[in-house]
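tokens incoming
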């Protein structure tokens, strides 16, 4: 069984058995038919993934690695807030008539800030520090910008990455670790999607900075299963999991800005059947 499957199954069981229901509360999201989208939720879930051991992709059902990477690069590399720059349609419901999702995600990543070394955006600041001052405890991004929230169609969910470099005894290369902070998580639609994205990011930044990928710690404040997802999750976690596939990044790419979604590959990715048309709460 892949480690990601085990963590996912344990988290879902914990939410279903020990979580609290939001039924009857004043909730924001709606189903397509206008009904309120209630959840069963657990406050404060922390999952640890060791990227040096396994790539944390679910085998219970297929996670679309290339689409997930495409969305990650849309935010972190293209720094775009327009759905026209995305190959999938997952953000269409939150875009305006011109395709913009407002001052969220990619917009914030592209904002340049004044530092002692000059003007840089948050990504370039991270890359600069990883290359020039890797043992700094100040390498992080944060896109939860209060002054701009009123111009975002959906507030950032995965909003901060904290990078931390360790020197493992006997290893030639430094190890790049990270903590992903997420305030809200739709467990069925996006948990493994987000885990896979930020694992790819750690692998890409490690390769671009001549390091090795270490741990990814995912801290989730509100980990929820939407009411209409409960039977789907129950069936999903009863399935037979398989071993984790082998993940590779194109070894020729050394510049973070040169990666494309075609540079990520999986070998032996055996999965359970896909669940078609998962309803998404808007
Ligand atoms: N309620 C909700 N859940 C989310 O996960 C979510 C939002 N809203 N709003 C903004 C984005 C959009 N996200 C989404 C939306 C849809 C899928 C989705 O349909 N995923 C399919 C595969 C998509 C593909 O193959 O490209 C799946 O099977 O999980 C994933 C993430 C994540 N975010
Ligand atoms: O990357 C993402 C983006 C969004 N989500 C989910 C988490 C929630 O179910 C909704 C957002 O609703 P809020 O009321 O703003 O919390 O989208 C996700 O899991 N991952």
């Amino acid at each position: 069984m892949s480690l990601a499957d085990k963590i996912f199954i344990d988290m879902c069981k914990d939410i279903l058995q020990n979580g609290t229901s939001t039924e009857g509360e004043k909730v924001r999201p709606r189903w397509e038919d206008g009904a309120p989208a209630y959840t069963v939720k657990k406050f404060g879930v922390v999952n640890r993934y060791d990227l040096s051991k396994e790539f944390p992709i679910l085998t219970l059902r297929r996670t679309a690695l290339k689409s997930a990477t495409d969305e990650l690069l849309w935010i972190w590399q293209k720094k775009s807030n327009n759905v026209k720059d995305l190959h999938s349609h997952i953000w269409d419901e939150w875009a305006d008539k011109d395709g913009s999702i407002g001052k969220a995600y990619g917009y914030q990543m592209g904002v340049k800030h004044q530092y002692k070394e000059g003007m840089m955006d948050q990504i370039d600041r991270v890359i600069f520090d990883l290359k020039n001052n890797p043992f700094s405890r100040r390498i992080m991004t944060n896109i939860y910008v209060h002054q701009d929230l009123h111009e975002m169609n959906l507030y950032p969910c995965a909003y901060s990455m904290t990078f931390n470099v360790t020197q493992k005894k006997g290893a030639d290369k430094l190890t790049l670790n990270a903590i992903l902070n997420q305030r809200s998580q739709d467990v069925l639609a996006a948990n493994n999607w987000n885990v896979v994205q930020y694992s790819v990011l750690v692998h890409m930044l490690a390769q671009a900075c001549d390091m090795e990928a270490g741990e990814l710690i995912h801290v989730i404040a509100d980990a929820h299963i939407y009411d209409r997802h409960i039977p789907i999750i129950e069936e999903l976690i009863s399935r037979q999991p398989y071993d984790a596939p082998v993940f590779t990044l194109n070894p020729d790419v050394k510049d973070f800005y040169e990666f494309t979604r075609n540079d990520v590959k999986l070998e032996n990715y055996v999965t359970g059947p896909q669940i078609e048309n998962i309803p998404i709460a808007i």
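note: The beta strands are 20-21, 39-50, 113-115, 118-120, 140-142, 158-166, 175-186, 212-226, 246-249, 264-267.
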